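Example pasted here:
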Amino acid sequence: MFTRVYRCFFLTLFLLASPLSFADYSIEQIKGDLYRFIDDRHRSVFLVKEEGILLVDTLNRPAAEWLKAELKARFDKPVKYVVFSHNHSDHIYGAEVFDEPGTTFVAHRLARQDIRMTRAKTVVPDLVFDDQLNLTLGDSEVQLRYHGPNDGRGSISVLFPREQTLFVVDWILVGRMPWRKLWSYDIRGMINSTRDVLQLEFDTFVGGHADVGSKADVERYLAYLEALHGAVVEAIHDGKSLTEMKETIRLDKFSDFRNYEAWLPLNIEGVYERLIEESGMGWRSDL
């Protein structure tokens, strides 16, 4: 009996630790025909209509294989569109799982260019656009928009007007700090793009990471980005070193964001590096 108990215990530990475990995969309904797929820290969304399914981001091969099987079992409808939110591999790998006749792959032109030039191991999109593309699936319209540089190449917003839901990957988060040193982020572009999407009609926000939230949550995230950027600009003008900035800049009204204490110094460093290099504040004669 004890041997059986130990075997069950260690099997459970193995499954929880295994990268192939399905414990971290789940699907939840957002509104109506719109759903969110969760793979540990990553999220994608899909719309189910009588005519088929529109999926935004495939994440990675194991996740895509699990999702494809679940879509078949739950809905038994063809995947008509696979949309790439941008060019980063942690969101668009595994797309080959859905590469079948009748499935159209969609991305911004810059995302497709980067996929080709870097020989990314994913499907090269069939359909590309520059500013905006509206896709129709059954009685629903899905609006894809490019808002300029923000994160990676060709990163877009995806609006589901019927569900009043906006999906954005990486450059807007709800309930969590931006990723560490803002690797691959264009901080100024993030601010511009977030201001832009706030002009759209939506009441629910879904991100490629972190939580589901509201339009007010997006406004608050924008306020954090603006406060962070402004504080670092001011510190540079005051002649402070990066070390002094990390020690003195506090944005405690946002301290409820996850990873606030650990990542605020890294966020400061990321903004500082971009201001010094991209904005040229490191060689300005007036500083």
Q: What stands out?
A: The helical segments are 2-17, 61-74, 89-92, 109-117, 187-197, 215-237, 242-248, 260-277. Confidence is low (pLDDT under 50) at residues 1-21.
